[in-house]
What we know:
In chain A, about 50% of the residues lie in helices and about 0% in strands. By secondary structure, chain A is mostly helical.
Amino acid sequence: MESKLLEIFNVVLRNRGRSEVSQLTENTHLRSDLxxxxxxxAELTVRIESEYGIDIFEEGIxxxxxxxxxxxxxxx
Amino acid sequence: MENEGKTxxxxxxxxxxxxxxxxxFLDNNWKxxxxxxxxxxxxxxxxxxxxxxxxxxSYDLADTDNLKQFFNELIDKEALNAYxxxxxxAYDDIITNVQxxxxxxxxxxxxxxxIMLTKFVLRNMLLHNVMGSIVHLSSISVHxxxxxxxxxxxxxxxxxxxxxxxxxxxGERKIRSNCLVAGFMETEMSSSLTxxxxxxxxxxxxxxxxxxxxSVASMVYFLCTQEASSITGQNIFVDSGTI
Lengths: 76, 243
Ligand SMILES: NC(=O)c1ccc[n+]([C@@H]2O[C@H](COP(=O)([O-])OP(=O)(O)OC[C@H]3O[C@@H](n4cnc5c(N)ncnc54)[C@H](OP(=O)(O)O)[C@@H]3O)[C@@H](O)[C@H]2O)c1
């Protein structure tokens, strides 16, 4: 997992007053594991777009960290 | 300096209320990003007077397809504190004459582009952790019927509903959204009315006079400042007291 992506997650968690995570796995679920709601996911999308230039939710719902990583890898 | 670094996106800045709005924000040290199709004398004057604080770009808001790219080029990496949706067209006719093409054009300019711009503005505010403010220019025609304005009023009614729901959805991020419901102002938009029609409209107000652009601009400005921090999801009437 790229540390840049981990940091983006932690910025979102921090902004919501939640504790940070030290690692994420492919199976980490955005809503049930990290407790992110739709507004948090909007912020996550915006931060990922700003860093990587891709809107991860543009083509439908994303549920896990792995699905985000796949989208970012597809860019390379 | 007070307000230094504060930024606002204003649409429809080439004439009418738009000029007044730009001047109000610029005089209070804000940086203004302005959009309109035409570069009028007033735009050139503002560019000269405020050089680095007035950034203007031409765009036709009927073009809903290239809006994202345009927004990114205009705003670049800057954080927005406010968005004033002021550009609009009025397609007036009685309902039995309505034509689909001009109706669609009006909806693109008055509703679809403002909704898409709100998307980009909210995303900008999220990225920069800004507790921003959005103001849509609505019209008294939504609340008091006028012959010939049904289609136009319907676009403003859509904005009022959109604004109320924006306020509800993004309130927990302290982003606010309000509508400024303007009465009839003396601008190009109302210039096709005959003096007789105008008089009848003004007789339906408490003050019996047109709504002052400067009064509308001052309220819009106030809604964008920290002093209005508890005001959201509202329709604020600046309309000479329409009765
Ligand atoms: N005047 C009234 O009596 C009255 C009453 C209630 C509410 N309002 C509302 O107040 C706001 C300002 O109205 P106003 O009286 O100042 O109108 P106006 O004098 O007609 O100015 C309209 C502005 O919108 C811009 N605009 C129009 N079509 C556009 C397009 N396709 N793309 C980009 N910009 C476009 C125009 O610029 P370009 O032509 O250069 O593109 C202009 O700067 C509007 O939302 C209006 O509905 C007006």
